[in-house]
Structures are given as structure tokens and as C-alpha cells.
Amino acid sequence: MAAAAVQYPTSQSGQMIQVSTAHLGTNEIRVGQRRSEAYVRLAEQAFLHHDEIVLCGLGNTVRTVVSCAEIIKFRKYGTIQKISTSMVELDDGIRQSVAKIQINMKRNEGIRELLEKIIHEKSQETV
């Protein structure tokens, strides 16, 4: 499979920057400019299929990544296994470094069944 790239929006300039996605797995949630709750819902869906998820973000989205991880931990959906931070060199005309964070989270025991029940109840409410 060829290495792909994804575009991340930068919040200050509104420009799009390209980052390689060759390392991404299907359990990785790339956090952007939406509210934290949107990514928590994505994490709930990911925990239905994966024992472990990875939340990651660049630049100003670092605080949203941390907020999402704390919400997931508070709701007892999962526990934080590892936090990685680094600086990513971007070359989008102007050479610059941007902060990157990755938070690995492991699903807690019994949460899959609970999430399936919650999703089933929500689907019944909409019918």
C-alpha cells in the first residue's frame, strides 16, 4: 500500500498542511477543530471494534485531544496507556515546527457491551 497524506487545517492561518498517513491504523482518531464531544462519540464507536484507540492532534488541537482523553477516562470507557509528544517539521512553503500529541487508550472491561446497549437504545429512540 502506498503512503498517503492527509490535510490538517491550521487554526491560526486557516491553511491546510499535509502530513503522511502511512503510520495510521483504523483505530486512530485524528482530532481537528470540532468540539470534544464529537471525538468522544467517535471513540465510543471505535471501542466497539478495537481494544485500543489512539487520539492524535497537531498544533492548537492538542488541548482538544487531552480534553477528549480526560472525558473518556472520566466516563470510564477506557484508561490512558501512553502519552507521546513531539515536534513535527512542516514544509508548506515556510519551514515550521508544530506540536503533536498521541494518546493511546485501552478499553475498560465490560464497556463494549455497555456501549452496544447505549447505541441500541439511541437507535430505538429515533424510530
Automatic annotation (TrEMBL):
InterPro entries: Alba-like_dom_sf (IPR036882), DNA/RNA-bd_Alba-like (IPR002775), UCP030333_Alba (IPR014560)
UniProt-listed Pfam families: Alba
Name assigned to this protein: DNA/RNA-binding protein Alba-like domain-containing protein
Species per Swiss-Prot/TrEMBL record: Planoprotostelium fungivorum
Residue stretches making up the DNA/RNA-binding protein Alba-like domain: 27-84
Molecular function via GO: RNA binding
GO cellular component, one term: nucleus
